[in-house]
Structure formats: structure tokens, C-alpha cells
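Q: What would this chain look like folded?
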Amino acid sequence: MSALKSLTLATALICAASASQAAFCSDTGGRYEAWKSEMAAEARAAGVGERGIAALMASSYSQATIGADRNQRSFRYTLDKFMQVRGAETIIRQGKQRKAKNANLYAALEQRYGVPAGVLLAIHGMETAFGGFMGDTNIVSAIATLTYDCRRSDFFRPHLIGALRLVDQGSITSNSVGAKHGEWGHTQFLPGNALTYGVDGNGDGKVDLNNLTDAMASTANFLRQKGWQPGLGYQEGEPNFAVIKQWNAATVYQQAIAIMGKRIDG
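A: My prediction, written as C-alpha cells:
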């Protein structure tokens, strides 16, 4: 056997071993119940406790989540159309009002994390209309469905583990609701990011992203940890625009946040 063939075989065996450790995926909901048992074993191996496992086993396949995942049309709009559809002028107007009303909060966040109020408020307005609608979909079911689905299993698996660990620590429950992709709270954190970057902004001893102060502090912390440079610009072509890309991968979203943030900040 040649060295090349030996290497190829070894690689294949490693890949097969890795695949055998991960729960299977499917493009339909028909095998979801069987998948949950496989995923539970994987979650236990990742350190998830019994409350998290129970939440996974109580979850159900979310057809609404799959529908939303297949129909994200607004990200294909032009920038002008995207901003019109997403209500940019309303976000800017209300963002200015909220900045003035909560000046101390946003000043404290900028002092600590270096992120200007405009960026945080633009994200808040874009994601949930400033908390007006934070979702109606079971978080664990949504993120489990996306992990089970073959389209982006590898991306969502760490977020499912994160969601189950959030259940373990009491930050969310098996009944907590969020957006269609399992995002949680005022600025719609995916669970793995909530676990990693969530901050107890109001000092009550827990991270609750349905709480405005916790959510704003967590969003600022996420951006800072992703490389935000205090005092530098965040418009397209400026240093901190690259950090906005870490929040959302859609170009029109990134551009809209930068434009709205600048106008909110004045």
C-alpha cells in the first residue's frame, strides 16, 4: 500500500469516526424523535446535565422554523429596499429618543465596552423593534430543529448545546420562546453566543436577555470581544465595520446598521 493510499485511508477512518459521534441529520421531520435520542447522547458527552437533556427530549420539530429558514427574502433586497422594508426611519427616530431617555445607560456601556449607543440601538430596533416583538417560537425546539436539519447542522449544533446548558443553569427553560431560529431576547442572541457573551448588566446575579440592561450590555460585550476598537469608525471601510459583520452575515444588514447607527449617534 502506498504512502498516499495509507494517508487517504487514515483520513477516511478519522472522518468516519467523527461522523459516527454526531447525530444524523434529515431534511424532513419524520425521524426527529429518533434523532433526539442520538443527540441526547452527544449532548451528555458535551457536559449537558439532566435538565438540559429533558428540555431536548421535550422538544418538537418546528415546521415554522424550517419555513423561516428557507424564506429569508429581505436579505436579497437592495440596501434602499431593505431599509424601507425594515423601517429604518422609524428605528432612527425612536433610537434617538431612547438614547436621550436612557443617556446614563448608554454612556456607561460606551465607557465600559467602547461601543457607541447608535450601534446598539440600531441592532435593537432592527432585531425586535426595541423589544416590541421578541418571538413566539420555542427556543429549544427551534434550535434543535435546525441542528437536526441537514442544511446547516454543523453551524447550529454548538448553539443547541449552548441552549441546553442555558436550561441547565436556569437562564432559560424548556418553555422559553424566541425568534424562529432560536434567537433569544431584545437583540436576538443565538444560544451559544448568549452562553459565551451574555452579561449580567443589572447586577441581579443572572443573565436574562429579555431584560433590556442585560441585553444591551451583552450586545456591547459581544462586539467588543469580536474586536471592536473604541473610538474608531464603524462605517463601511472603517475598522469597526468588520465587527458588525460578526453580528450578521448579510451585507445589506451590516450596511443598514452602520448607517442607522451613525444617524442615531448624530
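The radius of gyration is 20 Å.
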